[in-house]
Input
Amino acid sequence: MRKFLIAGHGHFASGLKSALDIITGETDRIWVIDAYTEENRSIEDNVRAIASQIRSDDDLVVFTDLMGGSITNQVVRNLDLARVHVLSGTNFPLLIDLVLSDPDTPTSEAIESALTAAREQIVYVNKILKNHTTDD
Output
């Protein structure tokens, strides 16, 4: 089974999860780590607690907010990466695409497809609108 962890600074992760629940419905396959909030539990403790719930035949896709940040570093240090896929610089389209991806598609293939689609969603809307109005 494919499971997911969203981890980020502040309430980045729970905010993404809240928005995701509106689109996909709530699921028990997604965990959240809101780092450096009022909760005093360490990132390492959170990651280890989640890792203990992953079965050997599960794939875990981890979405983090910032490459090179403490959260991504702790995830990499504290998870066996054999069946863990860490994606940094997460955006909402990436999250939606992977959570809704076909479970029969190999995780690495689903990730590559979702990354391509997510990159296409990062656009400067003003420029598009300006080009659109000059074409009319």
Notes: The chain has one domain: 2-135. DSSP finds six helices and four strands in the chain. The first helix runs from residue 12 to 24.
